[in-house]
């Protein structure tokens, strides 16, 4: 099957959306499907206001439409709600070509956190964008419920996976991190206001706080919390080694739809401490993570959990299963069921 994926989140951006799309594309191609990615790096772009790491592509309907038409896809998926996908959406509607979308990010909450705008105003745009889709892919039951509460009902499940060749209990720990005074409390992700990193940095539980990641809030937080270790972005084996070196992984976000970093950490044997909110409520289970409105209490309890149990649970999330759900949700054109299954 020829599958076109339009997205406003792509390399060199570093976030869970990009990693999900890259991992699923690789799995789809491994299965023999042909995948076209239409992404911001293929167009002239401008930095996003308040978040210059994200580029907003100046993508026209005609330009995106030509790329799609030349590829002659059997299915089209729109991964985000930005300019690239807006152009693809317009082309699909003009050509009466069915498409699916995904709700990767709590966009209304993110906009509200960064600008103070009422999230309900942003939900009007979200409803408009997703309403024509044949299916809206959501990572967890909580996100499905959120979408349905805003009158978006055609929702399909699309879970996440872990690269078990990188993230596993056999991963060697970063010895520089291990040498810090314990316990090692780790955060991995964007260093941005919507990620609530400050809640992690102000937690009072004894130990050394390590931050892996970059973002617009890093300079301010690094100056305010000089006792924390800000290591910047890490990838691949270096990232896995950071997970393996930690005694507990702290996930302070209250706005994530899933939290890919949680299952990566658990696959390395590291228990998770989080708030009882969307994302952790769907991903964590007793014995591998602790959710509490008191983050210090969650950290203290998570430190008592069995690392082998965490690794076994984290290892149950695979990109093969994620790609299978993605394929099942697509709205292909010009293929019979046997061809789609193949």
Notable traits:
342 residues, alpha/beta, six-stranded parallel β-sheet, 16 helices
Strand arrangement, largest sheet?
A: 2-1-5-6-7-8
Specify the number of helices.
Answer: 16
Strand content: 15-25%
Basic shape: globular
How would you sum up this structure, described in words?
- The structure is a single chain.
- 40% of the residues lie in helices and 17% in strands.
- It has 342 residues and is an alpha/beta fold.
- Strands 2-1-5-6-7-8 form a six-stranded parallel β-sheet, with helices on both faces. It has a six-stranded parallel β-sheet with strand order 11-10-9-12-13-14.
- The radius of gyration is 20 Å and the shape is globular.
- It starts with a strand and ends with a helix.
Which helices and strands occur, and which strands form pairs?
Blueprint: E1 2-6, H1 16-30, E2 34-38, E3 45-48, E4 51-57, H2 61-71, E5 75-78, H3 83-94, E6 100-102, H4 107-115, H5 119-130, E7 135-138, H6 141-149, E8 155-157, H7 175-178, E9 184-188, H8 197-201, E10 208-212, H9 218-224, E11 229-232, H10 236-245, E12 248-251, H11 260-267, E13 272-274, H12 280-283, E14 289-291, H13 295-302, H14 307-314, H15 319-329, H16 337-341
Parallel strand pairs: 1-2, 1-5, 5-6, 6-7, 7-8, 9-10, 9-12, 10-11, 12-13, 13-14
Antiparallel strand pairs: 3-4
Helix pairs in contact: 1-15, 2-3, 4-5, 11-14
Short description:
With 342 residues, this protein is α/β, with parallel strands linked by helices.
């Amino acid at each position: 099957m020829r599958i076109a994926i339009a997205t406003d989140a792509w390399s060199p951006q570093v976030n869970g959306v990009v990693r999900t799309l890259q991992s699923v594309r690789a799995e789809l191609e491994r299965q023999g499907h042909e995948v076209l990615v239409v992404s911001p790096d293929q167009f002239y772009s401008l930095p996003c206001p308040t978040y210059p790491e994200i580029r907003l592509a100046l993508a026209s309907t005609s330009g995106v439409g030509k790329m799609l038409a030349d590829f002659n896809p059997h299915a089209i998926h729109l991964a985000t709600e930005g300019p690239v996908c807006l152009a693809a959406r317009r082309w699909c509607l003009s050509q009466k070509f069915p498409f699916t979308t995904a709700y990767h990010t709590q966009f209304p909450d993110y906009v509200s956190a960064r600008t103070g705008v009422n999230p309900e105003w942003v939900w009007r745009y979200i409803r408009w964008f997703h309403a024509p889709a044949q299916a809206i892919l959501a990572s967890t039951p909580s996100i499905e419920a959120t979408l349905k509460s805003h009158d978006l009902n055609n929702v399909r499940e699309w879970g996440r996976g872990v690269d078990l060749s990188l993230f596993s209990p056999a991963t060697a720990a970063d010895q520089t991190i291990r040498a810090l005074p314990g316990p090692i409390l780790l955060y991995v992700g964007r260093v941005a206001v919507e990620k609530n990193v400050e809640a992690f940095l102000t937690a009072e539980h004894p130990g050394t706080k390590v931050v892996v990641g970059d973002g617009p809030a890093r300079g301010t937080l690094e100056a305010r919390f000089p006792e924390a270790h800000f290591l910047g972005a890490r990838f691949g084996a270096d990232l896995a080694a950071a997970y393996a070196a930690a005694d507990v992984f702290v996930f302070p976000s209250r706005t994530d739809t899933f939290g890919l970093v949680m299952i990566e950490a658990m696959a390395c044997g590291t228990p998770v401490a989080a708030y009882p909110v969307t994302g952790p409520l769907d991903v964590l289970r007793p014995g591998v993570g602790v959710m509490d409105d008191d983050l210090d209490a969650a950290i203290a309890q998570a430190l008592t959990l069995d690392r082998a149990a965490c690794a076994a649970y984290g290892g149950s999330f695979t990109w093969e299963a994620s790609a299978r759900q993605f394929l099942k949700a697509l709205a292909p054109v010009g293929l019979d069921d046997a061809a789609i299954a193949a």
